[in-house]
Write a structure and sequence with these properties.
36% of the residues lie in helices and 26% in strands. With 238 residues, it is α/β, with parallel strands linked by helices. The strands form 2 sheets. The protein has a 6-stranded mixed beta sheet with strand order 6-7-8-3-9-10, sandwiched between helices. The longest helix has 18 residues. The structure holds adenosine-5'-diphosphate and magnesium ion. The site of magnesium ion (MG) has 2 residues, from α1.
Length: 238
Amino acid sequence: MADIVFENITKSFGDTTVVDEMNLTIKDGSFTVIVGPSGCGKSTTLRMIAGLEKQTSGNIFIGGRCVNETAPGKRDIAMVFQNYALYPTMTVRGNIEFGLVNKKVPKAERQALIQDICDIVGLTPFLDKKPQSLSGGQRQRVALARAMVKKPSVFILDEPLSNLDAKLRGQMRTELVQLHQRLGTTFVYVTHDQVEAMSMGDEIVLMDKGVIQQADTPMKVYHQPRNVFTAEFIGTPA
Ligand code: ADP
Ligand code: MG
């Protein structure tokens, strides 16, 4: 079981503590949504899972192994960002292939993998196009495909849909949930939008000011809020 475990994790920038003694288990294979207001520490939490940010104190375990000293590239995790972070001079194929070339995956294998994944995310007609000629939704799919070719045990996604218009965002929510069901891989998904959280997650981690307010299923968070913050944020009727 490749659970992700936070044991007493604190992260401070100078005198400011942005994640405060966090204890959390993200279950292997779950679609876990970390949700909360802007600035509450969601991205910092994700970046610590990925190893892009080092905790000030505490331990992180993935699959029972302490990863405190494990470099980001060795954590078997792929990250998808809000701003896509695509290479503008490369084609869609080039963007997706880049990490595989670096890993010295043989060409025939790369092509087969890219074909499979582009079929899944609907990018096959766009493989020879440059990012600037694509729509927001298509660019987001390229970012997703680039993460998928790595076949990671964990996907982490930081507000991946927030640059999309409402209609496309709704469609992509459904697609991401279907993708999770199909892959069976752990998804750790960050959003500030409680509707998005409740409609996508099978586990909800609600944060405020660097502290977990409640970590539960959407049903429990909605029907059994632990405190006033949770009830108000989720919109539980009083
Ligand atoms: P969220 O993703 O929930 O909006 P973040 O994790 O990005 O929140 O940020 C939490 C807090 O930490 C914010 O107050 C932010 O300004 C601060 N912060 C994040 N990264 C840094 C950094 N590299 N240096 C200093 N402060 C930071
Ligand atoms: Mg953020």
